Structures are given as structure tokens and as C-alpha cells.
């Protein structure tokens, strides 16, 4: 054993001994040199592993840690949280900001001789400028699991506390990254958890608790923030985009008091909203200019929380999802992900514990319990920005799920003075979106042509935005 490794192990043991945690160390991480479907060795360093976050129920979160392709010893570390309902971290890793993409080509699991869908390198990965820690959260998402079914009964608050325990233990296991600038990032529903998690970590920092994490701020994209804001901002957004008529827009505003489009008891409001929803049903919510495609998901068997043993075969996917048209790019990529992640070859390469998960799904969509118990995250945004932590809020400007109008509205509600007026930001001499900066290190930016999430549709622009912001340069 090399002397440097012995010193590191001794340091880790001492740190575990003097840290008051119920379990001081993570499971041994797996260094992944190659992946099924990718030709040759990986051109980046990928580590995977588990961290226990609920010892009573045996709940563990699974992670993928990809070192920066720049200067991993000094580049920022970003903890990235998936959005959606128990969505896997493979979604942001493979579809928007990670260094791999599926090759979109015809694939039939039973006619490919046991091979898995092919992967290619993605040149606009956020790992160009930062190390990214993708985590399957909450418990039950992706390859995260619980030995006891009670461990799956979580909500937004408990998930954030699990993540705080996760990151504390992860840094204890990886002390070499403690000095690196640390950021929390999230899209969509994860955007409600990110500021609360940052707030809880900042409390530990103020209390001087070990390990002392070098938290610098957080970033959220097309974030859910207040329960109803996304729905209410769709009406003016879709009117501005020419999807609903002037007449319907005026009727909704007249009959649905004070923009209450969701809970109004006015019969005429309800009728107008029925017309609105029928028009809404004709477009792609994630990007209004793209082809409308049905979301790819297998039928639930109602037994997700049971712990089952995987059969020893190459294919473990028992409920294959319907195959979408190949020109439904995101949905076809989702389709391929089921065959890739449910291959025992892939699971072995990633270091997945046998018997921990029956079938991997990209998102669970209601078949696991999850309480939306945070209501609003605006007070945590205000708290963190007032403390001076750096915050970037960004929106793809063609997203109808969480329209930029609602996000821009709550950012303005913080009532911070403007330090850099609304202006275009540029890439290759062309506007790539628009941005405004407030006091307290708060920046809001739009991504021209972006959807939900923005990097999936505009990866080059989003990487340019991130690399400028995270190194303190004007967007």
C-alpha cells in the first residue's frame, strides 16, 4: 500500500471516530472504467456508490460522481438533484448535462443478441467545468432503495434532510474535495428542495460543524417554487405564444378572480379553463415548438416497494415501455434507457447491489409515496440570498410546464435592487437568452430555445451560461 494511501485511510478513520454520525462512512465506491454500449474506455472518471441515510429502515441513496474534465482538484463540485416524481439521476446524466448520450437508432431488445443501446460522448457536459455528483433522490428513485418499505415514505422536507446527511457523509469519505467550491443544483421539482437544503447546510457551517463544507451557492433551472405559480403563469405565457386567443384570455381573466385559475368556484371560469386545457393538450408541454410525444413509462405493477431478487439473466426488464417514434428524441432516449439500465451487464458495471431493486424506471409517477410538505421555497431563496450566497435562477423560454413568467415573478417578489439591467447575453455573436442581476448575488437568466429542462434542448448555450456564472464572470 502506498504511503499516501495509508495516510488518507488513517485520516479518514480518525475523522469518522471524532464525528458524531450514526454511520461515518459510505459503502466502498466503484471506479467505473467502461460502460456497456460505449466504445472503449470512458474519457472521464466516473465513481458510483451508496450512502446510508436511514439506518432504521435500511435506506440508501445511490450516486454517480463524475470528476471535472478540467482541474478536478480545484474546480467546483455540484450536487445535482433530479426533478419530477422519484426521477432517476440517469435522466440529467444521460439527457441534458452529463457527458454521455444515447445514440438514437432503432433498437429492439429481443433482436439485438443481448446487446444494450449504444452511448456516445457528449461535448457540452457540465463536467467540462465542474465535478458533478448526480444522486438518485428521494429514496426509491433510480437505484436508491430501502430494505424496509417504511423507508420509502418520505416528503420534500425529509428528502432534503436525507440529502444533508448524504452530502455530509460523502465529504467525510472524500475529504480531498472539501476545499473545492460547492454548489447545489436542481431542475423542476428539485428546485423546491435545493434552497432548503442549502439553508440547512449553511446552518451547519454557521455552527462550525464538521466537515466544514465550502458552500458557495446554488442554481435552479425551470424550478418549481410555489404550488400554484406554474399553473397560473401558463395562461399569460400561452397567450403570449399565440396558443390561446385574445377572447379566451380575456374571459379567463374576467371570470377567474385575481388569477385564481385552479381553485375558482366560478362556473364560467371552469368552462373557460376547460377550453384552455383542451388547447394545452395539443402541444408539447416540455417544449412548445417540439412534436408532442407521450411520456415513456411501463405500467405500474403496484409492488414497487417490495424488495425482490433479480433473475440471473441479461435482460431483467419485465414491463418494457411502449416504443415511441424515433423522431420523438427525448422519449426515444427514455425508451432506450429502460433496456440499458435494466441490463445485468450495466448493473454489474455500475456496482448495483444485487436484490436491491427489481426494475429500474426513469420516474415513478405516483407509485411511491411523496409528500409535498414544503408549500413554498421562496423564504429559503430570500434567506440564502440575504446571507450573500450566490444564486442562479434560469429558465428555458419555451417551457410550458414551469413557464419563465412565473419564475421571473417570484424572483422579482424578493424586492432586491437591480445592479445589471435586463439585457441580452451572447454566444458566438448571437443572443442566447436574456438576463438580469440583482443585489445579494442573485442572477436570473433565460435560455433562448430552451425547454424543460433547458440543457436538453440547448446544451451549448447552457454550458456557456454555467461556465461564466460559476467562475464569477458576467453571463
Characterise this structure:
- The protein is α/β, with parallel strands linked by helices.
- It has helices spanning 3-18, 90-95, 156-173, 190-206, 229-240, 246-255, 267-280, 329-341, 344-350, 378-386, 404-413, 454-457, 459-470, and strands spanning 30-32, 46-54, 59-66, 77-81, 100-102, 119-121, 131-135, 145-146, 154-155, 182-187, 215-221, 370-371, 390-396, 418-427, 430-438, 442-447.
- Strands 1, 2, 3, 4, 7, 8, 10, 11, 13, 14, 15 and 16 form a twelve-stranded mixed beta sheet that branches.
- A hairpin with a 4-residue loop joins strand 2 and strand 3 (59-66).
Secondary-structure map:
Layout: H1 3-18, E1 30-32, E2 46-54, E3 59-66, E4 77-81, H2 90-95, E5 100-102, E6 119-121, E7 131-135, E8 145-146, E9 154-155, H3 156-173, E10 182-187, H4 190-206, E11 215-221, H5 229-240, H6 246-255, H7 267-280, H8 329-341, H9 344-350, E12 370-371, H10 378-386, E13 390-396, H11 404-413, E14 418-427, E15 430-438, E16 442-447, H12 454-457, H13 459-470
Parallel strand pairs: 4-7, 4-10, 9-12, 10-11, 11-13, 13-16
Antiparallel strand pairs: 1-2, 2-3, 3-7, 3-8, 5-6, 14-15, 15-16
Helix pairs in contact: 3-4, 4-10, 5-11, 6-7
Amino acid at each position: 500500500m502506498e504511503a499516501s494511501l495509508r495516510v488518507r485511510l488513517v485520516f479518514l478513520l480518525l475523522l469518522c471516530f471524532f464525528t458524531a454520525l450514526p454511520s461515518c462512512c459510505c459503502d466502498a465506491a466503484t471506479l467505473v472504467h467502461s460502460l456497456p454500449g460505449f466504445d472503449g474506455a470512458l474519457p472521464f472518471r466516473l465513481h458510483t456508490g451508496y450512502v446510508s441515510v436511514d439506518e432504521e429502515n435500511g435506506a440508501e441513496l445511490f450516486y454517480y460522481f463524475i470528476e471535472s474534465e478540467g482541474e478536478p482538484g480545484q474546480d467546483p463540485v455540484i450536487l445535482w438533484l433530479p426533478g419530477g416524481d422519484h426521477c432517476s439521476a440517469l435522466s440529467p446524466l444521460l439527457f441534458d448535462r452529463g457527458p454521455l448520450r444515447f445514440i438514437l437508432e432503432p433498437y429492439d431488445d429481443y433482436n439485438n443478441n443481448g446487446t444494450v443501446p449504444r452511448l456516445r460522448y457528449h461535448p457540452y457536459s457540465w463536467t467540462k467545468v465542474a465535478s458533478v455528483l448526480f444522486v438518485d433522490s428521494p429514496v426509491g428513485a433510480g437505484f436508491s432503495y430501502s430494505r424496509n418499505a417504511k423507508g420509502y415514505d418520505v416528503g420534500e422536507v425529509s428528502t432534503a434532510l436525507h440529502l444533508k446527511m448524504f452530502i455530509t457523509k460523502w465529504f467525510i469519505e472524500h475529504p480531498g474535495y472539501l476545499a473545492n467550491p460547492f454548489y447545489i443544483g436542481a431542475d423542476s421539482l428539485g428546485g423546491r428542495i435545493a434552497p432548503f437544503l442549502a439553508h440547512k447546510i449553511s446552518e451547519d457551517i454557521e455552527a462550525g460543524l464538521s466537515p466544514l463544507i465550502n458552500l458557495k451557492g446554488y442554481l435552479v433551472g425551470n424550478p418549481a417554487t410555489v404550488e400554484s405559480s406554474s399553473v397560473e403563469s401558463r395562461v399569460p405565457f400561452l397567450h403570449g405564444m399565440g396558443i390561446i386567443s385574445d377572447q379566451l384570455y380575456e374571459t379567463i381573466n374576467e371570470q377567474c378572480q385575481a388569477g385564481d385559475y385552479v381553485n375558482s368556484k366560478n362556473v364560467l371560469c371552469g368552462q373557460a379553463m376547460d377550453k384552455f386545457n383542451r388547447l394545452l393538450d395539443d402541444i408539447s408541454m416540455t417544449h412548445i415548438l417540439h412534436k408532442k410525444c407521450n411520456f415513456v413509462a411501463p405500467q405500474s405493477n403496484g409492488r414497487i416497494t417490495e424488495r425482490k431478487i433479480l433473475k440471473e439473466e441479461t435482460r431483467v426488464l419485465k414491463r418494457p415501455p411502449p416504443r415511441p417514434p424515433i423522431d420523438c428524441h427525448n422519449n426515444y432516449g427514455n425508451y432506450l434507457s429502460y433496456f440499458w439500465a435494466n441490463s445485468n451487464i450495466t448493473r454489474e458495471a455500475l456496482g448495483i447491489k444485487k436484490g436491491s431493486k427489481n426494475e429500474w424506471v426513469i420516474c415513478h409517477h405516483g407509485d411511491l409515496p411523496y409528500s409535498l410538505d414544503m408549500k413554498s421555497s421562496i423564504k429559503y431563496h430570500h434567506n440564502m440570498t440575504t446571507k450573500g450566497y450566490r444564486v442562479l435562477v434560469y429558465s428555458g423560454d419555451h417551457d410550458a410546464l414551469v413557464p419563465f413568467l412565473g419564475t421571473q415573478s417570484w424572483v422579482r417578489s424578493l424586492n432586491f435592487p437591480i445592479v445589471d439591467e435586463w439585457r441580452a447575453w451572447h454566444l458566438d455573436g448571437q443572443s442566447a437568452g436574456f438576463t438580469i442581476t440583482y443585489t445579494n448575488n442573485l442572477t436570473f437568466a433565460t435560455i433562448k430555445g430552451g425547454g424543460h429542462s433547458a440543457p436538453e434542448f440547448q446544451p451549448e448555450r447552457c454550458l456557456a451560461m454555467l461556465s461564466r456564472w460559476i467562475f464569477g464572470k458576467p453571463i
